Amino acid sequence: MPPASKLSRIRNIGIIAHIDAGKTTVSERILYYTGKSYKIGEVHDGEAVMDWMPQEQERGITITSAVTTCNWGNSEIHIIDTPGHVDFTIEVERSLRVLDGVVVVFCAVGGVEPQSETVWHQADKYGVPKIAFVNKMDRVGADFSRVIEMMRERFSSIPLPVQIPWGQEEKFRGVVDLISRKIITWDEGSKGAKYEFSEIPEDLMAEVEAQREKMLEAVAEVDDEIAEKYLGGEEISEKELLQAIRKATLAVKLVPVMCGTALKNKGIQPVLDAVVNFLPSPEDVPPVRGVHPVTKEESTRISSNKEPLAALAFKVMQDEGRKLTYLRIYSGQMKAGEELYNASKTKKEKASRLLKMHANKRERLEMAGAGDIVAVMGLKETTTGDTICDEANPILLESMEFYEPVISQA
Ligand code: GDP
Questions:
Q1: Exposure check for the chain: N or C terminus, fewer CB within 10 A?
Q2: SS3 33
Q3: pTM beyond 0.80, yes or no
Q4: Nearest atom in ligand 1 to 25's CA
Q5: Ligand 1 centre from 26 Cα, in Å?
Q6: Is any ligand 1 atom within 6 A of the Cβ of residue 107?
Q7: 171-212: per-residue pLDDT in tens?
C-alpha cells in the first residue's frame, strides 16, 4: 500500500490566538467546512448542507485530539492542537516543534494582545511561517487597519494584507481578495458553507487598487523578480504573485493577513486556501536535526519515505481507556503491527494500531510516512519527547529546550 498521502499536499498547522480571540470558533468552522463545503456554482445538494448541520451541531465538532486531520481540495491538513494559554508556554513550544506553519487569529477589536504576541515571537524563534486571520470583523469597534498597524509596530515579520474587509462592524459583508481582485461573499442560509466570488463594485475600485498597489510594493521589497516587473510596469499574474507570497511567507519575511467573522460564518474558506497556498508542506521545511545516541555525532533527516525512520512522540493521551501516543514522523515509514524502536528508552515496542484522527471518525492506517502525524496504540513505555527510529540508524531528535513560562499581562 502506498504511503498515506503525497508529501507536498500535506500541511501540518497549528491555530494560535489570545484567549477569546476566536480560536475555538475558527477551528470548528474549519472542521465544518472541510467536512462539507460548496462554492456557489458547483454541483451541490443544498439540502445535504442543511440536514447535516444541526446533527453535527448536536454532536459538537471540536478538536478533542492532539491532532485532527481534514481535507481541503487535494490537500490534507493536520491541525495540531496548541494550548491557548500562555501559562503553558512549554506545551506551546513543544507543539511548535512538530508543526510546520501556523494560523494566528486576532480579534478585530482587541488587535495584538499579549498572548498572541508571545506565541508569535515563539513561532519566530523556530522560524515557523505564519498567516494571520483578523476575526470578529462584525463587532462594534472592529478595525482591520488598526490591527495591521499594531502588527507592524510589534513584529519583525511584515504583515501583508491580501484581503481588505468589505464593510466593518454591523456592515461587514465580505472581503475583497486583493490577489484575484474579486469580492467574496457568504450565503447565510448555508451557514457560510456556500460562498461566491464576484466583481468589485465601481465605488470600491479606487480603494481596492490603492490597497493592491501597497501589497505589490511590499512583495516587491522582498522578491527581486516581482520588483523588476513591478518597477517596469509589467503585468504580474495571479500565479506569479501567489508564488512570490508563498516564498516570502516560507522565509518568514511576510505574513499574509486575512479577515472575517467566524461566528457569522464569513471568511474561513479563504484561510484554508491560504494554508495550502502559503504555508509549507513537510518538504519545504529544513531537515530535522538530531544526534547519534552513542557517538553523539550530529545528523539530519530529510523529509522522505526513503530515509530511515525518525519520529518524535509529542503528546500522550488517554482515549477511551487506551493510551494514544501522537507521533510526528519526520522521515521513513512505519507499519501497523510493527515493532518500533524507542531510541530514548532503548526499547522496542509493538505499534498495535496506527490511527489518523478526523473530527468525527478515526481512520486505521496500514502504514504512515514522512510528514504524517499519527496516533499510535500499544506504545506503553513511550513518553513525550522520545524519539522512535530505525534501530540500525538510530537518532535522538534535538532535545527540547525549555523556557520559563512568560506571565501574561492580561
Ligand atoms: P478562544 O478562546 O480563542 O477559543 O475563543 P472562542 O472561539 O471560544 O470565542 C470567544 C467568544 O467570542 C465566544 O463567545 C464566541 O462566540 C465569540 N466569537 C468568536 N468569533 C466571533 C466573531 O467572529 N464575532 C463575534 N462577534 N464573536 C465571536
A1: N
A2: helix
A3: yes
A4: 7
A5: 8
A6: no
A7: 999 999 999 999 999 998 888 989 999 999 999 999 999 999
Look at ligand 1, atom 25, and give the residue with the nearest C-alpha: 136
Express each pLDDT in 12-35 by its tens digit: 999 988 888 999 899 989 988 988
CA 107–ligand 1 middle distance (angstroms)? 9
Ligand 1 geometric centre to CA of 129 (Å): 24
pLDDT confidence bin for 2, thresholds 50/70/90: very low
Cβ proximity of 68 and 79 under 8 Å: yes
Q: Cα(343)–Cα(336) distance, rounded to whole angstroms?
A: 19
Q: For ligand 1, say whether the CB of 18 is within 6 Å of any of its atoms.
A: no
Instruction: Please check whether residue 78 is in contact with residue 68, taking contact to mean a CB–CB distance below 8 angstroms.
Output: yes
The residue type at 205: M
pLDDT classification of 272: cutoffs 50, 70, 90: very high
Tell me phi and psi for residue 150, to 5 degrees.
-60, -40
Average confidence (pLDDT) over 246-268: 97
Query: Do 15 and 105 meet the contact criterion of CB atoms below 8 Å apart?
Result: yes
CA distance 145 to 111: 10
pLDDT at 123 over 90: no
Do the beta carbons of residue 375 and residue 361 sit within 8 Å? Answer: no
With contact defined as beta carbons under 8 Å apart, do 252 and 131 qualify? no
Q: Does residue 138 have its Cβ closer than 6 Å to ligand 1? A: yes
Q: Could you tell me the distance, in angstroms and rounded to a whole number, from the CA of residue 19 to the centre of ligand 1? A: 9
Please give the C-alpha separations between residue 116 and each of 95, 110, 140, in angstroms, as whole numbers.
Answer: 15, 11, 21
Q: Residues in the chain, how many?
A: 410
Evaluate: CB of 20 within 6 angstroms of ligand 1: yes
ipTM confidence: 0.99
Read off φ and ψ for residue 34, nearest 5 degrees: -80, -20
CA 213 to CA 241: how far, in whole Å? 12
